[in-house]
Amino acid sequence: MAKEPMRVLVTGAAGQIGYALVPMIARGIMLGADQPVILHMLDIPPAAESLNGVKMELVDAAFPLLKGVVATTDVVEACTGVNVAVMVGGFPRKEGMERKDVMSKNVSIYKAQASALEAHAAPNCKVLVVANPANTNALILKEFAPSIPEKNITCLTRLDHNRALGQISERLSVQVSDVKNVIIWGNHSSTQYPDVNHATVKTSSGEKPVRELVADDEWLNGEFIKTVQQRGAAIIKARKLSSALSAASSACDHIRDWVLGTPEGTFVSMGVYSDGSYGVPAGLIYSFPVTCSGGEWKIVQGLPIDELSRKKMDDTAQELSEEKTLAYSCLE
Amino acid sequence: MLPNSLLQRMVKWCPWLLRDEPKQPVKVLVTGAAGQIGYAIVAMIARGQMLGPDQPVVLHMLDLPRMADALNGVRMELVDAALPLLRGRVLAAGVVATSDEAEAFKGVNFAVLIGGWPRKEGMERKDLIAKNVAIYRGQASALQQHAAPNCKVLVVANPANTNALVLKEFAPAIPAKNITCLTRLDHNRALGQISEKLGVHVGDVKNAVVWGNHSSTQFPDASHATVRNEQGEKPVRELVSDKTWLREEFVSVVQQRGAAVIKARKQSSSLSAASSACDHMRDWVLGTPKGTWVSMGVYSDGSYGVPKGIFYSFPVTCDKGEWSIVQGLQVDDFARSKMELSAKELEEEKAIADEFVSIERD
User: Fold this and answer.
1) Would you tell me how many other CB atoms lie within 10 Å of the CB of residue B321?
2) Which of A27, A60, A159 sits opposite B188 (nearest CB)?
3) Which residues does the annotation say bind substrate (chain B) (predicted)?
4) Which CATH number fits domain B24-181: 3.40.50.720, 3.60.15.10, 3.65.10.10, 3.40.50.300?
5) B68 touches chain A (CB under 8 A)
6) Is A13 annotated as a binding residue?
7) Which residue of B has its CA nearest to A178?
8) CATH class of segment(s) B183-349
9) Is the pLDDT of residue A59 over 60?
10) Catalytic residue check, A161
């Protein structure tokens, strides 16, 4: 018996990340190879023709899983009945631009989108905010969509998480799928804290701690962290464009693990509404290690936090508190 | 890990022993990988859309020296995406990014040739021939010298059919059957148009044919296409009430779809081209479903009165890694005239290409 289609919204769908993301969704990478989808694509009126071009291409690709495409500039039509919302639309970061530069432009966007989602999305709609500043955009969304359960609003730090796995796999010359349980703490920004203290590598003699195998704390506490933190800028420098492929792929991973569950013994990183775990202030959207099961995420509790980690976790929480203040000042 | 020679003997004589052995990685080359279609396709290949979700892949990406930074950016993003299928045998490196043809082609089992001169709004296909003959002659040498035996090649860059022909001419050691060009995009576009016209899901439409050149003279033919509904498989030509639609609007919309997408997006089709290239290769390697054929640009053997010696799109089925032309389909006068028109264009393109080739030789 074929599954009922799920409706997936992508905002900013005419942009670079949207263009990379929609074929992934249409091929089942986000929700599974047996889950039919109906794509809702939203963008701003100046992008209407381009958005229609994307719709044409989706039709042209004859995807078996794609049961329908709605391409619109109307936020109500876009949000109606959606089960998953991936908010890519926002002001894109360009070379040299700091994340805070884009803050005020995005606050008003996310306030408006919050109302529409709240009023028109399907019950229990799962939301992933990608557009930067992701954590604060997600917070604005949460604040202005009070009837959406706060657990349903998340932001993307899976890209940073995957980048961290990639860096370790390159350093150790192992398959990236043999590395797991890095953690990205905090803000999807240059203050994020990529933490390998609980990360492991599958070897022929079992799971081994990354710290032991790398045997270079200076690198792990220094260059490794910096590389992951600044990877976004490095991609922009090389491509002259923001990461699209890897952002889209990681967004699919985030939703897929959330909906279908994380493998046994594995945790992933998600930006979620803080409940005060690990001494992180409540009321921020902060990236934590989580496991997922039955369509719900849960923060992994009880991980020992050393002094160096504590400081870094606090620094990124501090930045998020400042962003929150800045965002609220933009609303006045 | 078992040595390759032992593995090959086991595959032949006692395959049941290898039941749980993970597949050996294969090498897939994408040329023009720093471009738009390349960017779309590498993500799809790395997720198993081309060769199956259990087939590890080493991606070889080639582009021009001036694109080296951008290409490295793509390589970085592939690492950043932490894709489980992207892995090599020895050093675990799943991605090679290079501007060196020999390195790019070395040991590849599959080659998707996207690199070439891109079509811009208003540009005629024949304008492209001159620029691409030199490129494809070089690629042919590299392919012949460095690729793995039985490498399967898909030419995407336009003019696709003629580029494939140049490739074949200059890589005589490569079996002609291993060189193909992409008309699966047109085929998928045809299915899409039929599905929209009939208000059915595209997954229920099959067996359109795209005959000829991947150009505006292609002939999208719905006369053998069927739709699956509650009563079974029904011919499209019976379900479409407007008989002229199939011969006129349907044909011209599919023929000109590339231009329509450029007009809307201000850029060439990338998403749909990349996706269709994956479909083409996947069906070739893993086989077409029973009762279904697809369209591929292949070296003509004279079937259906099409001249030999050109790359022409035919209806094909695929099995055990080989394509074969579906024979015996009825071709009426209308279809015949369209098919001949496209064949004629291909012969003209061939003549133009031959001119440039002999200029190069001198």
Assistant:
1) 12
2) A60
3) 119, 125, 158, 189
4) 3.40.50.720
5) no
6) yes
7) B84
8) alpha beta
9) yes
10) no
